[in-house]
């Protein structure tokens, strides 16, 4: 397909994805780096590159890639989540909270962003904020809420 459509990024992005899922990540990484250079206005290219950068421990670079992804495509909830995670790793908690809140706004029923948001609030010594999140999670993800209760020592009932 890439030979038939040499100027189309879709086949290259598909190949990068196949490299990623078949554990050929160096090839995926190189291809994604080329894609963001040749077509820097595609948010998904930046997201995919950020994902691999995060996995390699390249947190500053991943932060820049995820930031570019959400600048271009603010609807990519996973890019907001990835941005939140790398900001946590970089101990930039204020920014992480903003990114994770945007993730939870886009994916309100996914527990992952909520979980990380509660953890950041605990790291910032804000147990009341974590408590609110645990209470919220109890309404649709009681197992995740219970895990947070165990990890934080905060016990929450739906009544209080």
Q: How would you describe what is shown here?
A:
By secondary structure, the chain is an all-alpha fold. It folds into two domains: 1-94, Serine Threonine Protein Phosphatase 5, Tetratricopeptide repeat, CATH 1.25.40.10; 108-160, no CATH class. Helix content is 73%, strand content 0%. The protein contains nine helices and no strands. It has helices spanning 9-21, 25-38, 43-55, 59-72, 77-89, 93-106, 111-123, 127-138, 142-152. Helix 2 (25-38) runs antiparallel to helix 3, helix 3 packs parallel to helix 5 and helix 6 (93-106) runs antiparallel to helix 7. The longest helix is centred in the N-terminal third of the chain and has 14 residues, at 25-38. The radius of gyration is 18 Å and the shape is elongated. The mean pLDDT is 94.
Give the SSE string.
HHHHHHHHH
> What gap, in angstroms, lies between the N and C termini?
58 Å
The radius of gyration computed from the alpha-carbon positions, rounded to a whole number of angstroms, is 18 Å
Return residue spans where pLDDT drops below 50 for at least 5 consecutive residues: none
As for the CATH topology of the largest domain, it is Serine Threonine Protein Phosphatase 5, Tetratricopeptide repeat
Strand content: under 5%
User: By CATH's scheme, which homologous superfamily of the largest domain applies?
Assistant: Tetratricopeptide repeat domain
- Total number of strands: 0
Q: Sheet bearing the most strands, described?
A: none
Query: How much helical structure, as a percent, in the residues?
Result: over 70%
Give the rounded overall mean pLDDT. 94
User: Can you tell me the CATH class of the largest domain?
Assistant: Mainly Alpha
| Total tally of structural domains | 2
């Amino acid at each position: 397909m890439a030979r038939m459509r040499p100027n189309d990024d879709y086949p290259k992005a598909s190949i990068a994805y196949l490299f990623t899922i078949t554990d050929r990540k160096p090839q995926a990484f190189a291809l994604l780096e080329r894609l963001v250079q040749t077509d820097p206005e595609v948010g998904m290219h930046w997201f995919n590159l950020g994902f691999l950068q995060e996995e390699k421990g390249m947190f500053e670079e991943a932060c820049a890639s995820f930031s570019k992804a959400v600048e271009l495509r603010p609807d990519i909830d996973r890019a907001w989540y990835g941005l939140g995670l790398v900001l946590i790793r970089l101990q930039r908690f204020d920014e992480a909270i903003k990114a994770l809140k945007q993730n939870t706004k886009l994916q309100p029923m996914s527990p992952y962003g909520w979980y990380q948001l509660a953890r950041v609030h605990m790291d910032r010594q804000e147990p009341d904020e974590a408590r609110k999140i645990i209470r919220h999670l109890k309404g649709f993800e009681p197992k995740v809420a219970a895990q947070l209760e165990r990890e934080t020592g905060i016990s929450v009932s739906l009544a209080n």
